[in-house]
Amino acid sequence: MRILHLVGQREDAGGILSVIRCLHQAGPPAGIEHATWVHRDYEETRAPSLDYRRTGFIASDSPSHLAIFFSSVLAFFSLRKLLRKEPFDVIHAHTRGGLIVSLLAGLFLGRRVLFTNHSYARRTWFYRWAARRDWMTTVVLNPNMAAHYGLAVEPHRCSIIFSGCADRFLEEPLTANAWPSADPLAKLKLVGMGTLVRWKCWHHPIAALARLPAELKARVEFHLWGPEQADADSQAFAAELRDAIEQHGLQETVLLRGVTNHVTDALRDGHFVVVASENEPCSVSLMEALALGLPALAARSGGNVDIVRDGTTGLLYETGSIDGLRDRIVAILNGEFTPASPAEIRESVRGWAASEMAAEYNQLYEQLAKPADDDP
Fold first, then answer.
1. 192, 223 contact by CB (below 8 A)
2. What is the pTM of this model?
3. Hey, what domains does the chain have and what are their CATH numbers?
């Protein structure tokens, strides 16, 4: 069975490619092959290596909906040409551009397609409409996302499959750096893991730390690991973060650490992982941190509400509330919150291992690859 993933990204970043890599690493059954359709300018910078197909047309996303639509129409003709050369049993779309291409493939090529929605979009009606097409099977990443789009979970129509945490994180040694909540002099080490893009809202923890009293500010370090993307807005956002750090005198408190190939070491070195983004779809780095036994400090939105057990495996604060995040940090520093043990935190995400995710996707692939007459 051969699966073609419609992605269209130009850079090797983001959770979508992590999900596809997890499908590879999880050890799929013999006979399943994955190919990933990206933009021709794409450069691979992470491991393991994927099997790529390239096009000059498909766009993963864009601020302009017209740009996505017209590039997707051109990409559809590129896809049709590819399918004449290579047979693929399942077309699996992951991005907004990929969704439009897959809808065209269903309408004009008679293909049954699978779409995994990795985002919380505002135009929910369009995604509901797409999910009702006879040739479309939709996957959302968590119950909160299903509620956001008003989609009911039902066979052959809509499924919930969490983005998987690589199994190796559940086999790594647990953190030995548990937060000593009873120590009034302990220094709190917060860790952020993710690309420096605006929707990740990394400016929120910086602003929250700036509002701490001086004596508490001296007891916190925020280590932010992640690459800067090449696009103009991402570059501007990274510059804004640096300006805010300097403006608030946080040079010794907030440390922009850049890219790391040692994610487990970076996470285990902290006391809490921070997820500040609004409507984070299903943070893989959050699940990886929990798998290592690290509690979370996360915005109450998106997939976070289904992943973090507030008051047990971490603390949630109201999305976008700088004061709410500051107050949570103060509560931790004052010993008002004692998280569950690292072993208990790991168990909370054991069911979301990549191998579990891959098994659920493989079942969908098998259903979609069957001739229509074989469907129940």
1. yes
2. 0.84
3. 2-164+353-374 (3.40.50.2000), 168-352 (3.40.50.2000)
